[in-house]
Amino acid sequence: MLTVNLHLINGDVITTSMTRAQRDRVSKTLNQSLLPNAPFEVTAGEADLLIPWRSIGYISTAARTGLDAGFQATEAAD
Question: How far apart are CA 52 and CA 16, in angstroms?
């Protein structure tokens, strides 16, 4: 799960958890020239929110510390 920030055009930031696939779908939807009429539904904390797509300015993913599971750091061989 990723921690994703939804940056609204009014300056508010909503933090939620999503999978990579969910984040990618949200990003692709935001990049469409015609946004859906149905609002984006998200659960933040204990609240269920309905956010109009046009009010989402952009999304960001929180920086991760450490290495991803299954990733092993290696050095390039000379």
Answer: 16
Task: State whether the Cα torsion 49-17-12-9 is positive or negative.
Answer: negative
Q: Taking the CB of residue 60, how many other CB atoms lie within 10 A of it?
A: 13
In this structure, which amino acid lies at residue 75? E
Token digits of residue 3: 């921690």
CA 18/CA 42 separation, integer angstroms: 10
Q: What is the pLDDT along the chain (78 residues), one digit of tens a residue?
A: 899 999 999 999 999 999 999 999 999 999 999 999 999 999 888 889 999 999 999 999 976 665 555 444 455 554
Q: How is 49-68 classified by DSSP, letter by letter?
A: EEE-GGGEEEEEEPPPPSPP
Q: Which amino acid is at 43?
A: T
Q: Computed over its alpha carbons, how large is the radius of gyration of the chain?
A: 16
